[in-house]
Amino acid sequence: MTKIILYTAPYCGYCRAAKHLLTKKGAAFTVIDVSDDLALRQEMIDRAYGRRTVPQIFINGAHVGGYVELAELERAAKLDPLLAAIEAVASAPGE
Known about the structure:
By secondary structure, this protein is an alpha+beta fold. About 45% of the residues lie in helices and about 20% in strands. It has 4 helices and 4 strands; from the N terminus they run βαβαββαα. It has helices at about 15-25, 40-45, 65-75, 80-90, and strands spanning about 5-10, 30-35, 55-60, 60-65. The protein has a 4-stranded mixed β-sheet, with helices on both faces. Strand 3 and strand 4 form a beta hairpin. Helix 1 packs parallel to helix 3. The radius of gyration is 13 Å and the shape is globular. About 25% of the residues are buried.
């Protein structure tokens, strides 16, 4: 199961920035394009507590927010521990 999910749209600069930051960190993630799929967009809105803007980012099932919140985690040195926790679970025996 993917531990990082980004709901995005292809025309979104913040989506590109979020993907760039996570790629720079070496994190694997799944991108879900909600631009042309109303069901996926509604799924995103439901999971993101009513937020309608992209990106909406989930790490380990927890809603992080958008790019601004992701960048705040990075500035506060809290993103690396989140990503490390994913890696630790993925490399644990029996996973």
